Amino acid sequence: MKTKTITGLALGILGFLTPLLFDLPGLGFAGQVTLGIFLLAAAFWLFEPVPIYTTSMLVIFLEVLLLSAEGPLCKLSQPPAVSPRAVPESQDFTLPAASLVETNQVLLRGPGPLPGRIAVEILDRAGDEVRVRAFELSTNSLVITRPRHWLNTYRPTPYRDFFAALADPIIILFMGGCLLADGAVKYRLDRSLTRLFLKPLGTRPAFVLLGLMGATGILSAFMSNTATTAMMMTVVLPILARLADDDPLRTAVVLSIPVGANIGGIATPIGTPPNAIALSALSQQGLGIPFARWVVMALPIVLLTMAFAWFLLLRLYPARTGSLTLDLPGKFDRSPRALGLYAVFGATALLWFTEKQHGISSNIVAFLPVVALPMLGIVGKKEIRGLPWEVFWLMAGGISLGTAIKTTGLAAWMVGRVDWSSMGAFAITAGMVLVGFVMANFLSHTVTVTLLAPIAVSVGAVAGRATGFDLAPTLVAVAVASSYGMTLPISTPPNAIAMGSGMLQNRDLMKTGAIIGAVGLALALLCARFYWPLFNP
Amino acid sequence: MRRIHILCVEDEPEVLEAVVRDLAPFEEVFPIEATATADEARRVVRDVILPRGELGLAICDHILPGEDGVSFMVHLHAQEATRATRKVLLTAQAGLQATIVAVNQAALSHYLAKPWNPDELVAVTRRLLTDYVLETQTNLYPFLSLLEADRLTERIRSGPLPGDE
To answer: CA-CA distance, A155 to A153, in Å (whole number)?
Structure first.
């Protein structure tokens, strides 16, 4: 085994056990378990001893086993209870003294998941028994004899709530986007749109490059960045043979695709999973952002960095050739199924952008293509099976982790550890965005946002009131900054594809990735400070 | 990266040089090894090509000093590592019998008669290497600019779309 694998496994197991070995004041046992799961997941996601999506599955599994009401831990560790014994010829009862809480209260197991608390009048103490009088007591009552048991204060989540993360509305939103993309590729809509886009831009290399970045950006706003890169690479790589071996334009053309895809993914909620994770965390807090509002928020930074990236590529890799022709044969598919795809695509996009007018959530709208495309035979079983299920699982793990952190009180506890009022509100935001950016360069972007979102939400719950910390702009900035984490070949799958073409030097990718990333990060911070707060409800 | 090689076996130096010259456009992605005899070719495959990568295409003359081209191809086909290798016979004088053996026992991919047309040689090479990478490779992007882009693109597009992680 590699050192990295061993480190990851060891840290994960250590992280899981540590919170259980210490008494953490204020955090119940359920919170300790959740903290353990969180640390385990963080270690596994950072070091990848197992594929990252399987870590997500493990998270859900552990939650169901250890935290759910139906799981073995809650089932087997119910607090013991006894029925009070009636004292003959009186209305009094005797109880074990251990069942008293706060000197004159006892916990009664009731019909609900949490025990009820009643006050009793203590008449006499004898050994480990007390004689009490209380109106609510009867010989049928069940008095809990271990009042400090963790299940007396933690209301276990039903296990279906943890499983439900895989059908979370945000995942349905994504599924809709994926099926639209599948249909678009199947009926060559992506190629037709690219052709449409490149035609008016002529053959001047600078404008062809702009067209390529624009087409890539627009496609990746609706398709996964990786799928977009894969498709656009099949457009650009065949023409590279026509350029001289030493023409720097080769590098610019190959780089324009992953750069365009990484930036374009920021533009819509379905552009890339980090956006969706941030959105789902926000809507859990009642701060949901409609589809169109996200686009309005993201578009300025997308356009600015795209323009900057264009100038940068032209500057670093000036074309030697005077003209570059991209010939994409074919025309718009006009078969009935293709027309059906255009109609469903158009209707979905229209409904997404007019959420404000009709009020129907984009998550619900996304179910339209999920149902309509297979029903009309536009996509088939092959496309359904070919959905990126590992990405859905990855997102589901993050969503269910968020549920556990919230319901076990871990969120409130974590935030209570730090004196937030001593920091400026924006310093907290900037710190998180920076951490997110650095992490995203080394880690999966989805994992980055998944780990940071619950922390941001917790901070927002406490620090928000105290210091004016602004949750929505912070989470949006974290998601956006993660998309700019594109310095290394391993930073994003689009980078990996571009490197895998064999047409790119490592240092070219790293140089442009670092410069564009830094500019994007700076712009994201500016937006989080001055632009995105304007959209707070 | 394990690179895919092209092997040319031809005993006349000028002819060998011409073949290698015609194939020069492929050299950037597919390193070319040239040998004069089947014996030398066996050694090159074993000691040079297979340790570093794989053999995608073998172009052989039939009449060679020592072992003939067809028997060398049968040898390549009998081995696991070179079974998928595409085999081209480039010859003026392979009899019917030898050709039958080449087709049946070495899965001969193409027969080119000398003198050959350079454009045809390039087209055949491009087609056969495309067949080879489609059969053996998962990452097709490095070949898009040199080989038959249409077929490679079709394969990439018909696979499941990757999602971002």
So the answer is: 6
